[in-house]
Amino acid sequence: MYNPVVRSPFPGMDPYLEAHWLDVQTSLVTYARDRLQSQLGDDLVARAEERLVVEDPMGEARTIGPDVRVVEIQPKSRAVLAEAGVAVADALTFSTESEPQVQRYIEIVDLTSGGRVITVIEFLSPSNKLPGDGREKYQRKQRECRAAGVNLVEIDLTRAGRRELLVHRWAGARLYDSTYQVSIWRAAWPSRCDLYAIKLDHRLPAIPIPLRREDPEAVLDLQALIDSAYAASRYDRTTDYGRPPSPPLEGDDAAWAERMLKGRGS
Q1: In angstroms, rounded to a whole number, what is the distance separating the alpha carbons of residues 261 and 266?
Q2: N or C: the chain end with fewer CB closer than 10 Å?
Q3: Residue-wise pLDDT tens digits, 139-177
Q4: What is the dihedral of CA 91, 96, 97, 100, to 10 degrees?
């Protein structure tokens, strides 16, 4: 049984959790769905959904997913060459098959309108920000949400790849660089988009979750979600804080993280 009192050495997002993003994302989606459910009226329901993306194992930008495998020696080819009197060496075959990766997100649906989706909440993965199938499918999802008038909440707690949140279509948003970011687009105000720029040394914020125009917005405490995921997956037992995180921190962030870990005795 996990200890809910266990805390990360960091006051906000723990950068070491990014190396375990598939597990972290699953926890965040589950906990967020459950905490939103109690804030929704009887005619709204939060559901955890998923999509499959295929990553190219040979791509240089690949960061998570299945490894390239050593498969087998090819005996048939060797036998044919041996019969022809040719000396052959044993060959290893390397498989680079692309495999699907599950990306999870939340949809809030309106039961009074036949299950129409009114809000999508995404916890972005590095594959959403790197060239390939994951980014292409995610960009398509952004376009579909805007075209259908579906509120879009994008929560980016990873540092790998190029950040392409919906808010970045507003040119001024890129001036506000930060370690982590949240973008909130409301269908009721399509010409506006909110940006939450989150620094590494800050607590993660509680953010509003837009619903229908007539509904009060729900609230999602991101720090509470991360704290729950950290404790439930026992990252305090499995994380080696003696090594740099992946991807590594740089400059002032790296110096600050080192001070935090020394202060906590990690």
Answers
A1: 5
A2: N
A3: 999 999 999 999 999 999 999 999 989 999 998 998 998
A4: 150
Neighbours of 29 (CB within 10 A): 22
Phi, psi at 265, each rounded to 5°: 75, 20
Across the strands, what pairs with 121?
106, 153
pTM: 0.81
CA distance 5 to 144: 41
| Distance of alpha carbon 105 from alpha carbon 90, whole angstroms | 46
109, 118 Cβ separation under 8 angstroms: yes
What are the distances in angstroms from CA 166 to CA 22, 162, 172, 181, 206? Answer: 22, 13, 12, 11, 20
Interatomic CA distance for residues 19 and 216, integer angstroms? 36
* H or E, element range at 80: helix 75-83
Taking the C-alpha atoms of residue 15 and residue 159, their distance in angstroms, rounded to an integer, is 9
Instruction: Please give the structure tokens belonging to residue 9.
Output: 């050495």
